[in-house]
Specification:
Distance between the termini of chain A: 28 Å
Largest interface: A-B, 27 and 28 residues
Shape of chain A: globular
Radius of gyration of chain B: 19 Å
Number of strands of chain B: 0
Shape of chain B: globular
Oligomer: heterodimer
Helix content of chain A: 55-70%
Largest sheet of chain B: none
Distance between the termini of chain B: 44 Å
Order of helices and strands of chain B: HHHHHHHHHHHHHHH
Number of helices of chain B: 15
Structural class of chain B: mainly alpha
Structural class of chain A: mainly alpha
Strand content of chain A: under 5%
Amino acid sequence: MRVKTIKRRGNFPAEALRSAGLEAEEKALAWVVRHRDDFNPLIHSNVQRLKLAVKAAAELSLVCSLACTSRRSDVPRQVYSELAAYIWDEVFKNEAMQEFLLSNPSGLPSYSLYVSLSQCGYEDAPFRKKLEALLEDGYLRAVECVPSMQMDLAYNLTLMGRLPDDLSISELYKQSFLARHPSLYPLTIADAYTVTHTLFFVTEFGRARASCFSAADETYFRVALPRLLAYYLRRGNWDLSAEFLLALRVLGLEGLPVYQHGWMLLFIAQNPDGSFSGPVTEEMEGFGETARRSATEADADDGDQAWVSFRNDYHTTLAVLLAMEAAL
Amino acid sequence: MDSHPGFREEDTAGLSTHTLARLQARSRDVMEKAGLWVARCTQERLAEMGVQAQCLSLFGLSCALRASAASDQPSEMLKTADRVVEKLLDDWDQPADGLQAKFQSGIFVTAMMAAAALVSDSPTARTYRKRCRSEWASIEQSAELRARATPLWTGRHLDLVISGAPQPLHKLVPWPTEISGQPMPYTISSDGIHQIVKEIAALSAFGQTPLPLSQTAKDYLKDFIPFWTFFYIKENDLDMVAPLVRALNYLGLTTVPEYLDGLNFILQQSKDDGRFGMQEMAIHLQSLTVGGSVDKRLEIYLPLTVASLWALLDCLYPARAPFKLGVCTQVV
């Protein structure tokens, strides 16, 4: 897919909202810095926490990479650079970590963690060669996965300069769930993430104009995406709200009233410690409000409130930071 | 759901003739089965039903009967309706539990809806209507009711319908409403939305007059009634969708995709035994966690079935809608 890199300036709807956004960004970033160690898989003795932290580290690296390469003049570059340095020095450079990444290649952190950090200026030639060898081995391309996950790989390979000739984000888009313009009523939470991630990768997180969208696609996006943002705002699902705010932004739909409303609600929802609460009741999807209130599920981690807070809130906090980086 | 939001062919006259005919064809059997379910449930449980449930049942039966051709009205529904009216009249003067007491304590809307919608012209039906009007007259000027503008104007309209008056006798004076506050659409409670629907019904005389609201208030409704309809269809919440579809109808927003989506959604919630239901697994979970104390038939399925019958009647059989002025069969 030929993309034209476009210069986007921040387009926050109003000055007051922009001010609130800068303040919220600062507080959210401060929360990430305070919880830096939780993003480090190597400090966790519990396997589930370790695996979650690998994913979290990769996601933090992505946010750092987009911030470090941002055209925004007022992005807190120093803070993001220091976070990237932490992940590089304390996580990635560890031999056990590198072995873990290379032996779990179908888990996307294998590529995204390294590629994101390389966008921040870091390079590890031997590791890169191993990633390239993994690709040549053929296993990664053989694994069955949905177009949006293949797009994740294609996006990272593009940044590495190693996108194979027979892999195209444009072609993957045409096979994707989103390209079928699905009805919004049966759309599950997993589907919603598929929609947002597809848009992120096709537009390179808003840094490129996608040439593969047809007029019908754009008509569908103009109706479906604001509706979905509104839906998740009303559900109080800040994670998907942030992703849909970013989705509207990458498609140039930030002029819609729901975009402003969304940011206003997110700023109100921000926790005093700077984090944004993750959606903890979405596993009750389909059971209605009454069931969500009355049914409970035991949580094996219940005793460790600090970890539970991190586990529940880190992704949403990162998602909001990502959306803010594009909005401000 | 058979179509995507935003991609339906626009029809400036509302639902196209073809679409309306198709929905009516689907609804006939559904509404008759629902009416028969209400009749059966009422016959079995009448002795333990409170007056509110009796009025609700009566209203539901009337909606189902109105959807049928006059020559085709199931006798079981007609007989059950008569039986309910008789019981309401027999218990009229019961302290606390009778309808007279309910009127005096400000709980009268369902009773008057039932009176306005009644299709029977039997002596007991006439008596019921007459008594409702009389009770209404005794409370209309009360200070308590005047402080509650939405039920006051709803009552006034229903009284006119019962009387058979062809047009409004008094000019509606707009009042401070939930609508005029334009609450944040993403955080408003479901009760708040229910209140807005009641206000739309009262302000528009159930869709017969333009809303006496500012343009910003009208724009607010135009934006967010469809959104809420979408939201609650997606949540499979029939309890919210049915009144919201009526609200779309009253507002004349019958070309928005959510209107047709809502009607289709309501029809799809019809169960084999005729009742309307929703979120069955959630109801099951709820019955386990609250110790099985919920009376599903009377507290869940009866209200849902009646709400669905009303929405379908209003939207698919507008000429037979229950609260149109001037079409009540009996002038009282």
